[in-house]
Design a protein that fits this description.
- By secondary structure, this protein is of the alpha/beta class.
- It has a domain of 416 residues.
- The protein is built from 16 helices and 29 strands.
- The longest helix has 16 residues.
- The N and C termini lie close together (7 Å).
- Bound molecules: 2-acetamido-2-deoxy-beta-D-glucopyranose (10 copies).
- The site of one 2-acetamido-2-deoxy-beta-D-glucopyranose has 4 residues, from α14.
- InterPro entries: GH, GH79_Enzymes, GlcAase_C.
- This is Beta-glucuronidase C-terminal domain-containing protein.
Length: 635
């Protein structure tokens, strides 16, 4: 029997703090790199300097004029056309810059980050698995070494960096992989790693070898080239892939790794089609496990590095609070998700967030960004992506303690959720909506209200009917629906958001565990009119359960957490300063490549790969939202 569990929207805010050491990153444009403390690492206790710049919030954007309709009608149908491919509960995952992996995961295989473990456990309890990528630009120069001092697993050579885009060489030990493997012993984490591509005449395959040997089934993908469109020509890239596969296939030791490649991870300078049209996917079909892209909606490179176009945060902020943002991000890839389906390959947004080059303080780390992330993630799912990875670094939290996963690898592949974007007549960009299907039946809805209005007058009401009318289906309106809300007082609020009444707490208050009692609203439906009226606060998200499924998110897996007093006191060593991050730029960092226009090309400068805005502050922002679509798993 299948057990139906809810679509779960995981919001990770205010995570990571307590006894954990935290490296201070600076919000671009908010804190000068010249500040003497700018590259220091601070323990939780001395994190006050972060607080000094952290409280930045932007004014709540004015309500639109004219106001959009605040009452919309939906009639849900069984087997509605246009439903997505079936989606995994692990749809949303995390991308962690390799150079900061030792700050996020732990120090080494014997010292794991407890808040991270708690967070991952919290997610896994709801999703069954968590996908995490270790990589980014800093993987390009990574070289495996036998050992490092003091049990370190990663080290950067920061000397001799003379200009901002230069990449510090990164060295790592096999213990990095053991650390990842140990985490997977505790939590069902599935890993992506990346092969360094800075020298395609001499591929350093040690990471693929170590990952295959140590992670086993928990290794699900190996990136072949990170954002090649910022460095190479098409033909060169395809040639590089060819020679990589040649080299790998000559090694019987890499028999698994050679079939797990992820490509092409283009970031917008090349269209994905320009890669598909080379025939790469057909030629190397047995080697390619994932098709990937990376993209950020915009960048904050000018404030950070003086590169590109200055951004006006005042005008930018409201653009995140509209469905049109997610639409503009997803639309360029619709042809590619269709192409991927035709080739039988999953298509993944391998790295994304609110903005590259660090994100924007007051945008990237507030409730509005959470709403944006929920909408973006769901639209990707509805559009036949097979995953999305929010890039985080440093202090965001990922991992957790041991919970027996509710499912194993084989049953993990049996998710049956499908996502459909649904529009009502006169629907505006401020109130996007989705339906989750299981076995062809609408079972849940996600209703989003981007408006922010403390008067309560901008609450939005969805009038939900099922079948009947012109659908040729009988009406099946339930006597009641249950609703979980994601709420905060305004889109500008930082921390303290609630999900079904529970919260991770305020900024820097969390150890990765949810606090409080889960609260699920019951809303009676009008059996005469055959409609359920669900109100969505302004701002907020409502997850509506249309059937009588069990609603406790923690069903299916026991709750296990790690004590925060364990291990973390010693975790105060691995740090990387803002200036070092500014150089984690991949390849040989030869030049400011890419365009200076909007788009992730610029993301390759500076903080790209490191940490979008709020995460820098240890607030697990929208960047760290994991939105998990969980469905029928076979027990
Ligand atoms: C690639 O990176 C490795 C390790 O950092 C370095 O030794 C090598 O010189 C680099 N190769 C090129 C061509 O940049
Ligand atoms: C991890 O680091 C600690 C502290 O430096 C050290 O004592 C321990 O041996 C290291 N563990 C491994 C597996 O290297
Ligand atoms: C963690 O990794 C080390 C290898 O460094 C291994 O000896 C140890 O048994 C692992 N611990 C767990 C709990 O898997
Ligand atoms: C979709 O992608 C395929 C494969 O690259 C390409 O041949 C086709 O022209 C694309 N269609 C559109 C409308 O871009
Ligand atoms: C940013 O945009 C706002 C609103 O359009 C405008 O009032 C403000 O002057 C702009 N700021 C800068 C620095 O250009
Ligand atoms: C997603 O794929 C399904 C199945 O192929 C298709 O029916 C649907 O139209 C696709 N959706 C989008 C937005 O491309
Ligand atoms: C995974 O679950 C399936 C279905 O319950 C079961 O048949 C299989 O033996 C399990 N595999 C492992 C490795 O536990
Ligand atoms: C849509 O808007 C138009 C113009 O405001 C209005 O006349 C019409 O009744 C609306 N339709 C619905 C279904 O609300
Ligand atoms: C709007 O929604 C909020 C949160 O649910 C609620 O407290 C408030 O009463 C609602 N306001 C109106 C006018 O319905
Ligand atoms: C860096 O990479 C670029 C682009 O691949 C290449 O043109 C340049 O020669 C390289 N520079 C060094 C110092 O390796």
């Amino acid at each position: 029997m299948g057990s139906s569990t809810p679509l779960f929207i995981f919001i990770c805010y205010g995570l990571v703090r307590l006894s954990t050491a935290v490296t201070v990153y600076y919000a671009p444009g908010q804190n000068p790199l010249s500040t003497p403390t700018a590259t220091s690492s601070a323990s939780a206790a001395s994190y006050t300097d972060a607080a000094a710049y952290n409280p930045i919030t932007l004014p709540v954007p004015a309500l639109p004029d004219p106001m959009p309709p605040l009452s919309l009608s939906f009639n849900l149908q069984a087997n509605a056309p246009g439903r997505s491919i079936t989606q995994s509960g692990a749809f949303m995952g995390f991308s962690i810059e390799m150079s900061v992996a030792n700050q996020v995961l732990g120090k080494n295989s014997s010292i794991l980050q407890v808040p991270f473990l708690n967070l991952l456990a919290t997610i896994q309890q709801r999703s069954g698995a968590v996908r995490v990528r270790i990589g980014g630009n800093s993987q390009e120069t990574a070289a495996q070494v036998a050992s490092l001092d003091d049990g370190e697993v990663i080290e950067k050579d920061l000397t001799g960096i003379t200009y901002p885009t230069q990449t510090p060489p990164l060295v790592f030990t096999r213990d990095l992989l053991y650390m990842m493997g140990n985490i997977s012993q505790l939590i069902n984490v599935r890993w992506f790693v990346g092969i360094p591509f800075n020298d395609s005449s001499n591929f350093r395959l040690e990471i693929a070898q170590s990952a295959q040997d140590i992670l086993g089934d928990h290794l699900i993908g190996i990136q072949a080239g990170n954002e090649p469109d910022l460095y190479a020509a098409h033909d060169d890239y395809v040639d590089e892939i060819s020679s990589l596969i040649d080299v790998m296939s000559q090694s019987s030791d890499l028999s698994v790794a050679q079939s797990l490649l992820l490509t092409p991870s283009v970031s917008g300078t090349w269209s994905p089609e320009s890669v598909w049209d080379t025939g790469l996917v057909d030629q190397y079909s047995s080697n390619i496990a994932w098709l990937s892209v990376e993209h950020y909606p915009t960048d904050n490179c000018f404030a950070q590095f003086g590169i590109g176009t200055p951004q006006n945060v005042t005008t930018l902020w409201p653009t995140y609070l509209m469905h049109s943002s997610a639409q503009s991000l997803v639309q360029p890839y619709l042809n590619s998700t269709s192409y991927a389906q035709s080739k039988g390959k999953p298509f993944i947004m391998f790295e994304t967030n609110t903005a590259s080059c660090g994100g924007f303080a007051g945008i990237s780390d507030v409730f509005g960004a959470a709403l944006w992330g929920v909408d973006y993630g769901l639209l990707m799912a509805a559009s036949n992506f097979s995953g999305g990875m929010f890039h985080v670094g440093g202090q965001s939290v990922y991992y957790n303690p041991f919970i027996s996963p509710p499912t194993n690898q084989s049953s993990f592949r049996k998710w049956t959720s499908q996502v459909l974007e649904i529009s009502a007549a006169n629907q505006s960009t401020y109130t996007p909506n989705y339906v989750i299907y299981e076995n062809g039946q609408p079972v849940r809805m996600v209703l989003i209200n981007f408006l922010s209005d403390s008067s309560g007058n901008s609450n939005y009401t969805a009038n939900i009917a099922i079948g009947g009318g012109n659908t040729g289906q009988s009406t099946t309106i339930p006597s009641q629906v249950r609703v979980k809300y994601l709420t905060a007082s305004s889109v500008s609020q930082k921390g303290g958001y609630t999900w079904a009444g529970q919260t991770f707490g305020g900024n820097f208050d969390s150890d990765g565990r949810l606090q409080g009692t889960e609260t699920i609203e019951t809303i009676p439906c009008d059996q005469t009119a055959q409609v359920c009226l669900v109100s969505v606060p302004a701002p907020g998200v409502a997850l509506v359960f249309l059937t009588g499924e069990r609603l406790t998110e923690t069903e299916g897996a026991a709750s296990t957490t790690f004590a925060t007093t364990v291990l973390t006191q010693t975790f105060n060593t691995a740090t990387i300063g803002a200036s070092a991050l500014a150089t984690s730029n991949g390849r040989n960092g030869s030049s400011p490549l890419g365009s200076s226009s909007r788009g992730s090309a610029n993301g390759d400068y500076g903080f790209r790969g490191s940490v979008p805005g709020s995460t820098m502050l240890g607030v697990c922002i929208a960047s760290a939202i994991s939105l998990v679509i969980r469905a029928n798993y076979v027990l």
